[in-house]
């Protein structure tokens, strides 16, 4: 009998905490769930009838393949596809984070789906898209192929800081120009010109229509490259011709 009041107190306190969580506004619940991986967030939503559909409108998506067994790559792909397909179509995405592995079998399948996942986040006007890839050197390959024209590129109206790789300099800086033109509030641009393996000589032939281009809204461009990299000189010349000054261009050597 002596232990009964204590048990009743713990039981009552537990119910009180559960009720308090259920009474929180949807925005607060979304914020709490944003610290969870997407699979965990979906599982948490099963704990309460009121939370049942909260995952469908979460503004932050954290997808981590480590939530799945190494042999469940197909299950991982199905989960991500369904997660995005069943979302509330009018719910925006503020941040999209994807962490996956390119080791083992099924790499080509994941690579193919990745482009669709990223495009989905961009169409929802995500202001931050983070992609992390774990891979062995033997599996290094292109993860996303962009066709000859970049008319698919959406407007990044709220983007102020952008980092791009060497790939955007191909075809006379075509991809770089498109990204800058579609980012009207961009203030800082970082170009990482170093890459492992042999530098590709492939170039994409595109039509620029001889349109004038300026990047006057940019305040700082940081170029990270190997010492004495001739490509860096071409980048600087391009930036000068686009209206930037030497005070706005910072060269940083990685080695």
Structural class: alpha/beta
Structure summary, number of beta strands: 7
Portion of residues within helices: 25-40%
Number of contiguous helices:
7
Strands of the widest sheet, in order across it, are: 4-5-6-7
- How big is the Rg? 23 Å
Strand content: 15-25%
Overall, the morphology is elongated
Number of domains: 2
The major beta sheet can be summarized as: 4 strands, parallel
The helix/strand order is HHHEHEHEEHEEHE
Compute the average pLDDT: 75
* Poorly predicted runs: 7-18, 136-149, 196-209
Instruction: Measure the end-to-end span.
Output: 73 Å
List keywords for this structure.
single chain, 255 residues, four-stranded parallel β-sheet, F-box domain-containing protein, F-box_SCFL_complex_component
Describe it:
- The chain is 35% helix and 16% strand.
- By secondary structure, the chain is of the alpha/beta class.
- The chain has 2 domains: 126 residues, no CATH class; 109 residues, no CATH class.
- The strands form 2 sheets. A 4-stranded parallel beta sheet has the order 4-5-6-7, with helices on one face. It has a 3-stranded parallel beta sheet with strand order 1-2-3, covered by helices on one side.
- Helix 4 runs parallel beside helix 5.
- The radius of gyration is 23 Å and the shape is elongated.
């Amino acid at each position: 009998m002596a232990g009964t009041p204590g048990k009743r107190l713990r039981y009552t306190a537990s119910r009180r905490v559960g009720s308090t969580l259920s009474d929180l506004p949807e925005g607060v619940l979304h914020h709490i769930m944003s610290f969870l991986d997407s699979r965990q967030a979906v599982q948490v939503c099963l704990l309460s009838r009121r939370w049942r559909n909260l995952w469908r409108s979460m503004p932050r998506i954290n997808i981590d393949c480590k939530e799945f067994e190494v042999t469940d790559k197909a299950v991982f792909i199905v989960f991500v596809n369904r997660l995005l397909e069943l979302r509330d179509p009018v719910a925006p995405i503020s941040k999209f984070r994807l962490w996956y592995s390119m080791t083992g079998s099924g790499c080509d399948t994941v690579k193919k789906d990745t482009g669709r996942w990223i495009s989905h986040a961009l169409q929802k006007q995500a202001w931050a898209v983070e992609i992390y890839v774990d891979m062995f050197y033997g599996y290094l390959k292109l993860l996303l192929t962009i066709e000859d024209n970049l008319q698919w590129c959406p407007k990044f109206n709220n983007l102020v800081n952008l980092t791009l790789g060497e790939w955007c300099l191909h075809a006379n800086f075509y991809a770089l120009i498109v990204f800058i033109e579609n980012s009207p509030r961009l203030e800082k641009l970082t170009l990482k010109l170093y890459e492992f393996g042999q530098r590709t000589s492939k170039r994409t032939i595109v039509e620029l229509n001889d349109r004038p281009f300026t990047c006057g809204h940019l305040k700082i461009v940081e170029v990270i490259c190997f010492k004495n990299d001739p490509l860096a000189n071409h980048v600087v010349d391009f930036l000068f011709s686009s209206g930037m000054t030497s005070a706005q261009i910072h060269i940083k050597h990685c080695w």
